[in-house]
Design a protein that fits this description.
- This protein has 217 residues and is α/β, with parallel strands linked by helices.
- The chain has two domains: 136 residues, Rossmann fold (3-Layer(aba) Sandwich), CATH 3.40.50.2300; 61 residues, Arc Repressor Mutant, subunit A, CATH 1.10.10.
- 51% of the residues lie in helices and 13% in strands.
- It has ten helices and six strands.
- It has a six-stranded parallel beta sheet, sandwiched between helices.
- β5, α5 and β6 form a beta-alpha-beta unit.
- α2 runs parallel beside α3, α7 packs across α9 and α8 crosses α9.
- The termini are far apart.
- The model has no long low-confidence stretch (mean pLDDT 88).
Amino acid sequence: MGKKRIVIAEDHTILREGLRALLSSTPNLEVIGEAENGRTAIQCVQNLKPDLVLMDLSMPKTSGMDAIREIKKQFPDVRILTLTIHDEDEYILAALQSGADGYVLKDATRGELIMAIETVLAGKSYLSPGVSEKVIDGYLEGKNTFRKNSAWDTVTNREQEILKLIAEGYKNREIADYLCISVKTVEKHRANLMKKLDLHSASDMTAFAAKKGLIAE
């Protein structure tokens, strides 16, 4: 059997280089592409048809979560392993619901990461030990950890995408051009966000986005 082909989606160059070196030293794995944001990750998958995408969640412009959804929509057979610093319940559930096949924390050892990749490539799911405990607590002990109705639950994927871009400092026209929609549509989404989340300024939106992990604090 040939080597399994991998795309690394990570916005920090030094981490991408480290991951490439680590994976390239593994005999049965081959890194065929890199992406610094979610949109580039989607394009890499479209162009290169990898076996697996190693996906960070917190990336500029198009987030890893949005990229997971789009990749799984277009290429359901491509395996996706999330590699992230986030161990909060809402991130775990959102990633799995978006279509991620595995969830690994960035404090994992080299051995665990390779094992996670091989497990996911074999068609199984993989969760880091700490993440597994949260899943067990939430589902088997009936703590209902993952289901907390809030205003955030009413925010659509498109609204989350626009909130992220606003928080990153992009103007309405720039957001419209990036998403290929009209400025009026951006303004409408912006107004909906402020109403739903009870936010009153761009700085409020930025702080909220940081709290939700859409951007780095």
